[in-house]
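Give me the fold.
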Amino acid sequence: MSWCHPEPGLNALLADPMIRALMDADGVDAGKLEAELSNLGGKLRERRERHRTHSCC
């Protein structure tokens, strides 16, 4: 499938005024959320690399 526009990255999403307003209304700390999501992304990348290096195919 071909897309004309790539999906926005985490920084773009967290900078969006509507998303920020919703996060503020819900009491979400943008810094903590970004740190947690970045940490999770790092873990997923590590897992993918381990799978890639240990895969027989």
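Residues 42 and 49 are 11 Å apart (CA to CA).
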